[in-house]
Amino acid sequence: MYKITINGRQASFDQAISILDAAKKMGIKIPTLCYHPDLKVKGNCRVCIVEVEGLQPLQAACLTKISDGMVIHTNNKRVRENRRLILELILANHDQTCTTCHSNGVCELQRLTEELNIKANRYDQVLEEEPIMYGNPSIVRDMNKCIKCGRCIQACNDIQEVGAIYNIGRSFEMRMGPAYDFDLSQVKCTYCGQCINVCPVGAIYEKDDIVHVLNAIEDESKHVIAQIAPSIRVSLGEMFGLAPGENVASKLPTLLRNMGFDAVFDTDFTADLTILEEGIEFLDRLENGGVLPMLTSCSPGWINYIEQFYPDLIDHLSTCKSPQQMFGALAKTYYADKIHQAPKDLVVVSFMPCTAKKFEAQRPEMGRNGLPDVDYVLTTRELGNMIKMQGYDLDHIEASDFDAPFGITTGAGLIFGASGGVMEAALRSVYEIVTGQALKEINFTQVRGLTGVKEATIDVGDIQVKVAVTNSLTNAKMILDKIRNKEADYHFVEVMCCPGGCIGGGGQPRPTNNAIRIERIKGIYSAEEKMTLRKSHENPAVKALYEEFLEKPNSDLAHKLLHTHYKNRQK
Amino acid sequence: MTNLLFERPGKLLSFKDYEQADGFKTLKCVLDKKPQDLIDEIKKAKLLGRGGAGFPVGLKMQFVADESSDIKYIICNADEGEPGTFKDRELLRRNPLKVIEAMIIAAYAIGASKGYLYVRGEYTNIKDHIEAGIKEARQKNYLGPNIMGTGFSFDLEYRSGVGAYICGEETALIESIEGRAGDPRQKPPYTAQKGLFNKPTLVHNVETLVNLLPIMQLGAATYTTYGTEASTGTKLFSVSGFVKNKGVFEVAFGLKLSDLIKNQCQTLEAYDTIKFIQVGGSSGVVLPRDLFDIQLSYEAFKAIGANLGSGAIFVADESICILDFLKATANFFRHESCGKCTPCREGNRHISMILDKISQGQGTDKDLGLLKSTCEVMKSASFCGLGQTAPTAILSVIKYFKDELQAHIGGQCYTGACSMKGGDLHV
């Protein structure tokens, strides 16, 4: 037992937890800044310092474990004065143009300064202004805002093992960024945006494309359509005060139509289509000795990763485009024909949980006749901001349905938004297509959730299909190493770049952490359970699309429009 | 001058010379003993770490010895970055074989099979000399598998620092060996449990390790007759500044600082013009004249709230402006902070700025207050020893030389080194 005293109050704990955790359990709040619940504690900012009797230096509460008999003061005069000095030191080197900051209102430094009642700074401003870096289509870095907490480094190195950014230089010249102060586009960055999710201030954010979309809407000659990714319906609400996981899908069609979109579709539709294309591709590989295990290809951060780090394994990737890009390709061909619009006057806007999608949409192979299939990609955060700036919110918005044909969807498409969803959807369809029998249990719960690597074996006809599901690039790396060393006996592997899948994407509302991810996952599956259609191959609009246009999965036309190729992008 | 550790300066000893002068004889003797006996003897000798912190050496070795692990490491910290400190360089230059022998003994005591000799990057001129020693020791089977048929295997590798002061901090040094930026790690876990490559690791300063030789040769009982009750043995002091006789001096603990400066360093009549002495390097305390008689021992310095540190002694006469001196110190730390934690990364630069402001005749009492607060927050809240000790000199100047700082605020620099109120008002 560890008996401790904090601020005169006593408590006992049976484990040597950190002072921070112990205080939390006792209802005592110790302010933090570099601390993040999903990252290893590092003790960089020193905001959480406390006084421990018997120890001369103040201790970082996040790092220091309790010991029996410890007497702790979290907020006495010495602690208060030093904590205040630390905050003032940070602020003296921080661009305090809060009103125009990307994190205005969600900034942890702003909130902390308010909570500690800091109204003036004794230190002179020492910020040496540097240009904001806009060198790539996805991620903007503004080092004038950076407070050097080190969370982005951890996201990039520990969660993703990408290592695009690290701390460079030392002392007050220490900064977070790619080696030699390169732009992210010059190093192996996947644009996953996990660094954005953990940044406590506004130093990293997505490239803002809202204004392009508004201009397109206001251009009378343009027919502007929207596609909504599965995961954002359970996270967007957070920007309007709703709980994580609350499903706002039914409001989005009305809202976006009110904002001037000509049609509002659902990416769940092309998720369903992906299952048929990818499922048939998988069966073909299985029966005809193709490269196995087959790896899913819907996560563009993941594609960026394998192309840059494991180009020798790109043959394992499914040739299917991501649902976003399948949507774009169909919109500019099938749909444009249907509504008699010239593709050049059709503007496709995606609302995605993802910063890598911005890069994906700009890849030269993702278009035809010089036009991109997807014109603009906005993250969940940008969607929330756009709704606000156009004077809307989520209250008093009537529910309505997505438009036909790309608004007719199944639960299988919806669960693409969470790690395991693609695999679960694929198994539902592959099983029934191969066996011709209805699945008894369509919930594959063993592949759901935040666990890094999930495995399952399913009898599909005569074949025992062994699958794996993984999320975050650290876990993907593990699987890739196994494949490279010929130690992987999987047939089919789902890989999602971000922890928890798209619900944890780099474009999701801040904060995004594991506790919030879990709520969003619940939101996805509970919405899915209520749906009548839950198998992609039963989607009537998908069936119609094949009958009218594509003929059959993996047909020549399907290949031309819905499949792609990858290249070695090692730098 | 007492001489337990030091070779007389002169020509470099060859391997053969060292063997003929009973070199590696101590090693041969101790390899017959039980490792625990060695540690017990070191404990009895009450040896304290010479790198700066003064931690009991026997205890530290016991911690590592008590760990069970497939591999343990020993690191000899020869990064010696503390300004004004050059004793380890002299030890290594005069006889690297002694350091190698001591490392092997320590490795045997704790059960380490691999060692690293981490040498300050700037010491390029002794690199070949040391590496030749390692190579020859390996040829003679003092290093390598099954050393002299005893069944004990140990080898060591030379690693060069690349110029960062922070890498003298043991966990930053470990990060550096592992191939990362030299940022300090959180302790606990201590290096004894999880050090290099997360294995139990003993990190000792060069001088600390060399002390194992006289302890093994003389035995703890004789060894402890040198020095004071609490600070046993001898200490190497690197003396620089306004003294006639500069260099490294080996003295038994207990000598008065004034004796060392007056007699051994031969300041003689110039002694009366000495203004202050900084002990322990740039991170050390600045002593005024009335403390010059302080005893050179861990306990005497502890009593005044200071630390002997690495044993660097810098002597300054009245021509040195205390503020000018602090500016140099502050600039050093401003350059050397790793940047990991807020107080050290940001604090050092503000300290430099405030000192500059005062020396330009634009300082106020408020600035002096903020200077002190900044020093306090660095001392209290920095992540590692660098930031915690960086303001030591300034805090002691505020304590012992407040008048001179105050005079600067009033527009007066005693030495004329500072540009006061437009630059002409020199007194």
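Residues 342-359 of chain B form the longest helix (18 residues).
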